[in-house]
Amino acid sequence: MKFYWGPHTCAIGIHILLEEIGTPYESVKMDVAGGEAEQELFKAINPKGKVPTLVRDDGTVMTEYGAIATWLARTNPDKGLIPADPEAERRGIEVMDYAVGTLHLQGFGRLFKTENYEPQDALHQTLKLGQASVKEQGRSIIDAALIILDQQMAGRAYVAGDAFTIGDTALFYATRWAPQQGIPLPPNLAGHYERMTARPAVARVRAIWGEA
Ligand SMILES: N[C@@H](CCC(=O)N[C@@H](CS)C(=O)NCC(=O)O)C(=O)O
Asked: Which of 60, 79, 98 is the last residue of a domain?
């Protein structure tokens, strides 16, 4: 398999899953911040122009965080990355979807890719009125999401319960951006972040990413 990722991106969560599973993969580092994911060369592989992208040995391309994570978990059932209990599975998916869809794409997306959310009308474009309000809106979405996720993590070591599962990698990648942006993590999320960074697979990935 070929795994495409870029520093500072959400792809770290899938990278952690690959290391947790111990499956062989080729790592392809991309300059996502420099726009490499949007270039035609990469779009020929993934027309969405996004990482994480995982290309299987038969050449088929997998995209979207939840889909890749679920496929990795289901094809490696001995690793227990999806809880057997349906209620625990639901809890994990609920956190994963919210971390990806809301905290990341609605919240941090507005801080990192402000221009994508800026109103396109002439007044906003000329006076550049949009950027500050988009960032403020992003910050409010992040603050509200962190409170909700913190409440959901009360009394739980990991998103689905006591054991590490796929949803933990999504919560980890999205919450780790908060301190990087000067936004403090509430206590249950800070505890989850610490538990995640203590995992050997996470330490290995952070070393590959040049963070440790
Ligand atoms: N819906 C996608 C979102 C992936 C995404 O937004 N990836 C960002 C990095 S965190 C990206 O590749 N952006 C490309 C760019 O900024 O050019 C998923 O769930 O995987």
From this structure: 79
Asked if residue 109 lies in contact with residue 117, where contact means CB atoms within 8 angstroms, the answer is: yes
Query: CA angle, 47 as apex, 41 and 206 as ends, to 5°?
Result: 75
Q: Which atom of ligand 1 is nearest to the CA of 66?
A: 19
CATH code for the domain in which residue 158 is found:
1.20.1050.10
Q: 187 preceded by cis ω (within 30°)? A: no
Residue 99 sits in the same domain as residue 17: no
155/64 Cα distance (integer angstroms): 29
Residue owning the nearest CA to atom 16 of ligand 1: 32
128 pLDDT higher than 70: no
Ligand 1 contact, 136 CB (< 6 A): no
Q: Give the pTM.
A: 0.95
Q: Are residues 158 and 103 in the same domain?
A: yes
**DSSP, res 29:** E
Q: How many domains does the chain have?
A: 2
> Of 79, 101, 136, which residue sits at a domain end?
79
Do residue 113 and residue 192 come from a single domain?
Answer: yes
Is the CB of residue 38 below 6 angstroms from any atom belonging to ligand 1? yes
In a domain, 210, yes or no: no
Question: Which of 4, 8, 9, 111 to mutate for ligand 1's pocket (most ligand atoms within 8 Å of CB)?
Answer: 9
Over residues 172-209, the pLDDT tens digits come to: 999 999 999 999 999 999 999 999 999 999 999 999 99
E-state strands within the chain: 2-5, 26-29, 53-55, 61-62
